[in-house]
Amino acid sequence: MKTLEIQLKNGENIILEVTPLLLEYIEDYEGGIEQLKKDAQGQKDKNGYTRTMYATNQLLYAIIASNYNTPLTYRQAVRLVKLEDIEKIVKFVIDNTPNVDNDSKEEYIHLYRK
Questions:
Q1: Does 79 have pLDDT greater than 90?
Q2: What is the pTM of this model?
Q3: Strand runs labelled E in 17-67
Q4: pLDDT tens digits for 83-93?
Q5: Neighbours of 55 (CB within 10 A)
């Protein structure tokens, strides 16, 4: 599994990886994981608008909170990320999150635990 190491604003180094916990944190996003990835990349919706910042912050929360050693709120997780790291973190999550629908998500989680 691929990882990405970054330094948080508090000076801590954290190794990020895509795990089933990340999938759990983002499963309730309207349109699912695939829509979240599209929104984070700036794709316009049917009305011509983007949800880039909202989607980006959702991804940041999910990846930081799922890899941090203690529980974090949404606000705490997003605020720990340095501005210069946002783009590479989002790209890492998008590139390493499997294309999953609700049926295959359970299969992915099962395979990950082996």
A1: yes
A2: 0.79
A3: none
A4: 999 999 999 99
A5: 23
